[in-house]
Design a protein that fits this description.
Distance between the termini: 32 Å
Radius of gyration: 20 Å
Largest sheet: 4 strands, antiparallel
Strand order of the largest sheet: 1-6-7-5
Strand content: 15-25%
Length: 275
DNA sequence: GTCTATGTTTGCGG
DNA sequence: TCCGCAAACATAGA
């Protein structure tokens, strides 16, 4: 579920909630796979202090006193604060007991989310590609990775975290629409102007998503919510995602949906030409 | 009840 | 290299 803008919103919530400085007194694990073995996870995390919270791609990065806790929320992972005697909810997988009396609760309906507690950072995030909101995402760096994979299709290229980290299905479709590029175009078919347009569109759609505090689709609780329980607002600003059958905001043509790179893909057949 | 889809990632086979 | 598929899982909707 959460892509870069949603993870960034969660990160900002943790900063507002003053997570930094708290110490993890104890942990409970209700689904062992989430943490890769509950006994050793609990033993290892006990007594560690939250020193810093940041983001790398779609990973939340909690820098602790000894280790780093990486959390990938995958589809349905979510954090929120509670009190120690809160009843365990049906999809709760982990809770961390903090020294200030709060507990940090983690729910994950589909159980795909993962915690990695390690001091070897490279093992978790070593293969991730460029951070699209950092200076390293320069036009030249972007051109370079495009040239390295001439035969890849745009959709699968943008979804691959090893090239650019943080984009998911929603923001890929939005960026391609913004740059007027068809998701099936190969990288080698892109003109310099088109590469520029895409390089511009990627941070643009991500920043817009962050401004709107992320995208919450649908209405049920498995969807994205920030730590404070807020829904995102960006679903109202989406140009193509889940808008198939509606008019393209740019040219009025009915938007299309098809299956590309095994993902539901939304685009305007009129302004995103295949060539 | 059955079938399909879901915002993610990884690993396998061709 | 690149692509498609299945799996890790649960639930909603047609």
């Amino acid at each position: 579920m959460p892509e870069l803008p949603e993870v960034e919103t969660i990160l900002n919530d943790f900063l507002s909630a003053h997570l930094i400085g708290t110490i993890i007194k104890n942990a409970e694990v209700f689904w062992s796979k989430t943490v890769g073995g509950s006994a050793q996870f609990i033993k290892r995390i006990q007594g560690q202090k939250f020193k810093k919270v940041s983001r790398r791609g779609k990973f939340l990065v909690f820098t602790l006193s000894q280790d780093t806790l990486f959390v990938h929320l995958r589809m349905t992972g979510k954090f929120f604060f509670g009190k120690p005697n809160d009843p365990v909810s049906s999809h709760e997988r982990v809770r961390l007991f903090l020294d200030d009396g709060r507990i940090l609760r983690y729910e994950d309906q589909r159980k795909f989310g993962r915690f990695f507690l390690t001091d070897k950072l490279e093992e978790v995030v070593g293969d991730l590609g460029l951070e699209p909101l950092n200076a390293e995402f320069s036009l030249n760096a972007f051109k370079k990775i495009i040239e390295e994979h001439p035969l890849l299709k745009l959709k699968s290229f943008l979804l691959n975290q090893n090239y650019i980290a943080g984009l998911g299905n929603i923001y890929v479709d939005e960026a391609l629409w913004d740059a007027k590029l068809h998701p099936l175009r190969t990288l080698q078919s892109l003109s310099t102007q088109e590469i520029k347009a895409l390089h511009h569109a990627i941070p643009k759609v991500l920043k817009l998503g962050i401004q709107n505090m992320g995208t919450t689709l649908g209405s049920h609780l498995a969807n994205y919510y920030s730590v404070s329980g807020r829904r995102g607002n960006h679903q109202h600003q989406l140009k193509v995602f889940r808008r198939n059958g509606l008019a393209c905001p740019r040219c009025g043509t009915t938007l299309s949906k098809s299956r590309i790179s095994q993902r539901g893909t939304h685009f305007c057949a009129q302004c995103q030409i295949i060539q």
